[in-house]
Amino acid sequence: MPNSITLTKKINGFNKSIIVSGDKSLSIRWVLFSSLANGVSKAHNLLNSEDVMAAIKAIRKFGIKVLFKKNICKIYGKGIDGYQFKKNLTINAENSGTVGRLILGLLINTSNPIRLIGDKSLSKRDFKRVSDPLSKFGAKFMLNNDKNLPLQIYGSSNLKPFKYFENKGSAQCKSTVIFGAMRTEGTTYIKAKKSRNHTELLCKYLKLPITVKSKKNYDEISVKKVKQIKTLNYKIPSDISSAAFFIVLTALSKNSKLTIKDVNINPSRTGVVTILRKMGVNIIFKKQKVYKGEKKANIEIKSSNNLKAINCPIRLNSGAIDEFLIIFLVAAKANGTSYFKDLSELNQKESPRLKWGAKILNMMGVKNIITEKSIKIFGNPNLKINKKIIIKNYLKDHRVFMTSIIAALSFGGEWEIHDKDSIKTSFPNFLNIINDLRK
Ligand code: S3P
Fold first, then answer.
1. 219 has catalytic annotation
2. Which of 39, 68, 125, 269 has a CA 20 to 30 Å removed from the CA of 256?
3. CA distance 333 to 382
4. Residue whose CB lies within 8 A of the most ligand 1 atoms, among 29, 33, 98, for a mutation test
5. Domain chopping of the chain, boundaries
């Protein structure tokens, strides 16, 4: 089976209803919380992808039983101190920054050193951002090149709370410190730049000893040691980061309309919707509900004929951090010059994504100016591609692959897009949904 895809034709107009896969952030967090619960937790619609499987494989190594069949996953938690830290354990986070970074917070009391490894992409990413704060609890780390994987964590039986200032807007950094604090006697204080708040919402739903005060740009969080976690039955809503590819495909396609059902619309994740609405995309939330502290809705989108450029406010960055590649495609077709700034974090993802955004636009013939942390995109409402574009060697970043497919279907040209296996990390069903829309 070739691992590349060739596309030569724009998609025809469609009018459909789809369901995208379960939310990745919530799926990984559900696995980790359930692994610490007293008893059996059950999830429906858990994302069945390599990233989530990496979390499941990791907790299995700590002696936690997991059954995952069809659409139902059961985790047999043994309580907050139920992990067995055997000698010479190696955990493989594979491609997942979230698994690799979050799990470390739960290992700061390990009685035996644990080695954490990852794939080629994860091994290039910054782990000092989590080993630094976690060291303050008393755990010790040895990192490759002082900041990368493989790393070795040495836990402590004498953990101390501390005050942490999270200033990158990284939910992974914030969450791993919350996990560390759950294992630490006393109160840990966190001042965190706004970022996705699934960990805090799950803590609140489970009635764990956490308080969150929301300030304009920051949250002030306090966490006390957790004695017990009750089991967590959860129906994982769909992932807005996966939905975003289809929101943009619909917006850029003629005579099209799409409903995406049961999507998580936590306000810390809907930056993409706010940005696209400002650019003139017609997006409506229908049947809004609150489920276990998380908001969800059906999302309806229509083709957009009149796309406007945006000077994107910095405050919207963290809520759209995984969606900028796909937003850049809308900017490519908008009337005027769009400006996205303060985005150095984008180059910290599975690939240097800001650079890849610019590369894809260059290949499409869309003028842009890029710096280390910003990009200006000179939109063209009549954009059409008439040449061959080859996308490869992008560290198998799933979002580069999916963005390229949407670009090919929206703007035409001949595209040869390599490493289609990359979608297995976050959205294995992506190409099936594309094929359904092309019918
Ligand atoms: C995630 C946080 C974000 C995001 C990632 C998932 C999470 O990373 O990019 O895909 O589930 O906490 P950062 O915390 O590095 O911004």
1. no
2. 269
3. 7
4. 98
5. 5-22+237-438, 24-235
